[in-house]
Amino acid sequence: MNTHMNRISKVAYLLAIYLFLYMPILVLIVYSFNDSSFSLLWQGFTFRWYESLMQNTDLQIVALHSLLVGFLAATGATGIGTLAAVSLYRYQFFGKKLIHGLIFILIISPDIVTGISLLILFSTLKMSLGFWTLLLSHITFCIPFVTVTVYSRLTGQDKNLFEAAKDLGATEGTIFRRILIPLLWPAICAGWLLSFTLSMDDVIISFFVTGPEFDILPLKIFSMVRVGIKPEINALCSVMFGLTLVIVLVYQLTLGKNNDAI
Amino acid sequence: MLFKNLISLVLLSVLLCPFNTTFAADNVLNIYTWAGYLSDAVISQFETETGIHVNVATYVNNEVLYAKLKANPDSGYDIIMPSSYFISRMRKQALIQKIDHSKLAHYRNINPAFLSKEHDPDNEYSIPYLWNGTGIAYNIRYQAEKSVNTWQDFWLPRYKNQLLLIDDTRECFSMALIALGYSVNDQDPDHIKAAFEKLKALMPNVKLFNMDAQRSIYLDEDITIGMGLNGDIFLASAQNSYLRFIYPKEGFVITLDSIAIPVEAKHVANAHLFIDFVLRPEIAKKIALESGFSTPNRAAKELLPLKVRTNPILYPDAETLKKGQFQTDVGEAAPLYEKYFERLKLEE
């Protein structure tokens, strides 16, 4: 009896948490089918917001901008962040502890500080604001997250592995390519996805460092608040949510298995 | 191997990236404006006619625009559209430059009622683009028709816990200042304090402070009386025929968004071409219809559909329009307004 109650309360608790997490997204998706421009009451089912989204080239362009920056920033940050994690774990050098600490500081420091300091840096260097400054900034704020993710997986590894490899005649390069990368692959992917998400929804830093030629989705949506968020935006967000779902599914199906095997 | 693939992928995407070209091209115009103020159709017509490539970025409020320009005057925008009180602040701080009227063939289309105001007395720095008025919105299913005429009516006990106030310092204080018979740009600390006391007395009647969701709130009848912007209520009333909008007898605020050119703009000639383009009656008409706000362009107004141009919400008669007050920068008094507004909401 007692265990039975226990199980019920566990399920109820889990259900409540998932409801809390997913309810807002469900509401957003439901409203993307609401047949009204402004009203928040249910006025009937329609696909017209998805149709008008297909015709809204402006929104499509900024969505593409965001995807492009997200993809490049995640890739760049993953490369640099992984290298940083590996060198912090494997090698001894002067100032190692300091550098390790600085990475955590970057994670905690507020976005607005990062944003303003990057802006000051770019204007001192006389760089014109736009795609490149945005990409550099996104890579910058994503690196620490990748480093931390990869580093935590490294600390779980057996150091003897590398020594064994060396005994068998592997060079540092071979160790990196044939042992480290395969071992770290799940963490690298997780770091990439984390960076991609961070880049996709950053508003504050992007606001400071992007220029007139390059508007991105979060800034665009944010600025549309005054004229009222049209269900078109709901439709767009639903599409993006669907896309995320697909990415996570693919990740689970392909890498999730490997993860267990290692 | 994997790592090599990664690198080549990055390089490939950078090479394929079409944005490299925008840095080379110089025939560009960079616009920073409110969302919904410029449609794709208007922009592409300008691009085809002139061969100038237009980049549009959007901001959510004047403060954001100001912060961006102040933090980095060299940020590359050629056209901005701040509200009148930010025009006066930016003018004083030399963030915007003079506009050459000799390049604007269609300047005469602007209704003089929107020119030579305190924020830009000689019209040197700003060109009126769109305007909206803050009045009273109410729903005749819940409030008797014609039962509200003045801001002063808001203080009647019958509106207990019913009103919507616009969640903006200047808008709320302007309403109280007008009700007290002062100017909306008053900088006298005693008058501001009186307005604060007046607003405090109103709090029992206030149900909600809101800025951006007025349309849906009034449309869905979550609130049936309160402050409203004419453009928003006009759009909402098309779907809810019980909605009414009035310009209070004592006066009201006109928020005028004007075109300005930042001091560091790189494409000043293109900016002038663009200003003259949007002053053309048929273009200004398109802009007004698509944004849902009112145009200060006389010639454009005449081209609007009869239903729109004779609508008293969007286009009140000259007599009413005269009672409109334009906001200008309140300078040193601004922090005082902010302080009182915060106190007002805290003591709620």
Task: Walk me through the topology.
The complex is a heterodimer of chains A (262) and B (348).
Chain A: H1 2-31, H2 48-55, H3 57-90, H4 96-108, H5 111-124, H6 131-154, H7 160-167, H8 172-200, H9 204-209, H10 217-223, H11 231-261
Chain B: H1 2-16, H2 20-24, E1 28-34, H3 40-50, E2 53-59, H4 62-71, E3 79-80, H5 84-92, E4 96-97, E5 127-139, E6 163-166, H6 169-180, H7 189-202, E7 206-210, H8 214-219, E8 225-229, H9 230-237, E9 243-246, E10 252-259, E11 261-262, H10 268-279, H11 281-291, H12 298-303, H13 306-309, H14 318-321, E12 324-326, H15 334-346
Parallel strand pairs in B: 1-2, 1-3, 6-7, 6-8, 10-12
Antiparallel strand pairs in B: 4-11, 5-8, 5-9, 5-10
Keyword list:
heterodimer, A: 262 residues, mainly alpha, B: 348 residues, alpha/beta, three-stranded parallel β-sheet, 15 helices, 40% helix
| Most strands sheet of chain A | none
Q: Evaluate the radius of gyration of chain B.
A: 22 Å
Overall pLDDT confidence of chain B: 90
Residue runs with pLDDT of under 50 for 5 or more positions of chain A: none
| Helicity level of chain B | 40-55%
The tally of helices of chain B reads: 15
Give the ordered list of helices and strands of chain A.
HHHHHHHHHHH
Topology as H/E string of chain B?
Answer: HHEHEHEHEEEHHEHEHEEEHHHHHEH
Structural class of chain B: alpha/beta
Mean pLDDT of chain A: 88
Proportion of residues in β-strands of chain B: 15-25%
Shape of chain A: globular
| Rg value of chain A | 23 Å
Q: Give me the count of strands of chain B.
A: 12
How many helical stretches of chain A? 11
Helix content of chain A: over 70%
List segments of chain B where confidence is low: pLDDT < 50 over at least 5 consecutive residues.
6-24
Summarize the biggest pleated sheet of chain B.
Answer: 7 strands, mixed
